[in-house]
């Protein structure tokens, strides 16, 4: 079963561990704004050094309603030893989905051919910045990301609400 399909499952197979220190849930995050921790998959299902695309499924809120189990977006995750690197799969240029190249050594956006290294750094194309980084933590063997969305087409990270 794909990791993304496990986003809402309940089995726990790996002891709790924290890879990246993060403030308590609900407080202002390192990136500013409100944290939004979303469980995306089991740590044990992440092969070292191999990028994996995961769905982000969680609550979508507006001023009046809360909708559960909504598709919020997608991320690329790479396990590098004891660290987990997570980046939005949404292109910072104009918002298309970023794909992994066949050689698995870089990412590509099919819309206007922006190319990124595995670190998320831009290599070629019109993207004004690197792939958007997301904080991660591991809780009871589950990988969680502080999921945020950022404005397209600008060089600086500008978070957009929701
Ligand atoms: S939307 Fe990705 S390069 Fe334009």
From TrEMBL:
Source organism per entry reads Sorangium atrum
Please verify whether the record's keywords include Transport: no
Q: What is the lineage of its organism?
A: Bacteria, Pseudomonadati, Myxococcota, Polyangia, Polyangiales
* Ranges where the Rieske domain occurs: 38-145
* Database matches in PROSITE patterns: RIESKE (PS51296)
Q: Which UniProt keywords apply?
A: 2Fe-2S, Disulfide bond, Iron, Iron-sulfur, Metal-binding
A Pfam family for this UniProt protein? Rieske
Q: What is this protein called?
A: Rieske (2Fe-2S) protein
